[in-house]
């Protein structure tokens, strides 16, 4: 089978995916061990029998809903190649907004904490931009911690510590910036039955109190771990901006602000410690 024919077959087979051609390209490039540009450059090249079998197997798994990132074991975030697995969230493009805003609040040698670091996406993106910052990422899941450590080590960042902690439980230090993309989805949200989230752990997605319990807990504790004037930033659901603002206000934060994502939905709310 030729590369162009394989892509036509796969796009047709993936009728239920919103991104059928892109999925097919990423998976075929993965099978061939090449960049996707190779597929456009050499459409007439033949797949070996083994490559054809492997590609068909991946397309079948994708038809059954498995996320492309789980099939390739990798996802790019902030132009950093990150390993992913089913212990935590697959990093989403919208989370880059949180990184962009955190960067505007950071000095070159800031002490930065990422709560619920998962793959390490947020803290590694920040560390890539701020090589003199002192960066820490923590997660409750031991498996996620191992994954984030692997990602840090393969990127060779030497300014990032990663360890296990139930939110602030094992954290002694004080920080200029605390960022978090915590679980914020309500357990009854219909979106939990759709798309990639079906294959991601509920521990990375769901929180009590209509999805706000972890955000509330972090707000209550963050004041003990932020330096004076320090900034706390959350990613949250598109309908949670006003609620997160209220929680920050109740906990004494000032200069509170909500920012929108690329689709103009409320996505990040931040506040400063007086
Ligand atoms: C929405 S995911 C975000 C992952 C990553 N920061 C990202 O943006 O791609 C939330 C993360 O919080 C972690 N988490 C959940 N409860 C936690 C807790 N009590 N303490 C620390 N981390 C927790 C989960 O294991 C998961 O990795």
Automatic annotation (TrEMBL):
Alphabetically ordered keywords of this record: Methyltransferase, S-adenosyl-L-methionine, Transferase
Source domain of life: Bacteria
Single GO molecular function: peptide chain release factor N(5)-glutamine methyltransferase activity
Pfam families noted in UniProt: Methyltransf_31, PrmC_N
Sequence ranges assigned to domain Release factor glutamine methyltransferase N-terminal in this UniProt record: 5-73
Tagged with keyword Zinc: no
Gene3D superfamilies named in the record: DNA helicase RuvA subunit, C-terminal domain (1.10.8.10), Vaccinia Virus protein VP39 (3.40.50.150)
Residues engaged in binding S-adenosyl-L-methionine: 116-120, 139, 167, 181
Catalytic activity as recorded in UniProt: L-glutaminyl-[peptide chain release factor] + S-adenosyl-L-methionine = N(5)-methyl-L-glutaminyl-[peptide chain release factor] + S-adenosyl-L-homocysteine + H(+)
Binding residues for substrate: 181-184
Any single GO BP term: methylation
Entry keyword Repeat: no
Domain Methyltransferase: 108-244
SUPFAM superfamilies documented for this protein: S-adenosyl-L-methionine-dependent methyltransferases
Known EC number: 2.1.1.297
Entry-linked PANTHER family: HEMK METHYLTRANSFERASE, MTRF1L RELEASE FACTOR GLUTAMINE METHYLTRANSFERASE
Its biological purpose: Methylates the class 1 translation termination release factors RF1/PrfA and RF2/PrfB on the glutamine residue of the universally conserved GGQ motif.
Family per record: Belongs to the protein N5-glutamine methyltransferase family. PrmC subfamily.
Name of the featured protein: Release factor glutamine methyltransferase
Organism, as annotated: Psychromonas arctica
């Amino acid at each position: 089978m030729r590369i162009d024919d394989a892509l036509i077959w796969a796009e047709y087979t993936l009728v239920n995916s919103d991104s059928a051609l892109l999925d097919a390209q990423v998976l075929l490039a993965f099978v061939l061990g090449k960049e996707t540009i190779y597929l456009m450059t050499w459409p007439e090249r033949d797949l070996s029998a083994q490559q054809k079998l492997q590609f068909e197997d991946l397309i079948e798994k994708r038809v059954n809903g498995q996320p492309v990132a789980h099939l390739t074991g990798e996802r790019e975030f902030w132009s950093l190649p990150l390993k992913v697995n089913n212990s935590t969230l697959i990093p989403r493009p919208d989370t880059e907004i949180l990184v962009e805003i955190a960067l505007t609040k950071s000095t070159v040698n800031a002490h930065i904490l990422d709560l619920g670091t998962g793959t390490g996406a947020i803290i590694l993106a920040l560390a890539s931009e701020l090589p003199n910052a002192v960066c820490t990422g923590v997660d409750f899941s031991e498996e996620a911690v191992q994954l984030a450590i692997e990602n840090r080590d393969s990127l060779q960042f030497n300014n990032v510590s990663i360890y296990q902690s139930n939110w602030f439980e094992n954290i002694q230090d004080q920080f200029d910036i605390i960022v978090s993309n915590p679980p914020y989805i309500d357990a009854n949200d219909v979106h939990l039955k759709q798309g990639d989230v079906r294959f991601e752990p509920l521990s990375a997605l769901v929180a009590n109190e209509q999805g706000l319990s972890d955000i509330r807990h972090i707000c209550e504790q963050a004041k003990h771990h932020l330096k004076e004037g320090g900034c706390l930033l959350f990613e949250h659901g598109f309908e949670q901006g006003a609620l997160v603002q209220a929680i920050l206000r109740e906990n004494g934060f000032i200069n509170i602000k909500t920012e929108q994502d690329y689709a103009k939905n409320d996505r990040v709310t931040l506040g400063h410690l007086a």
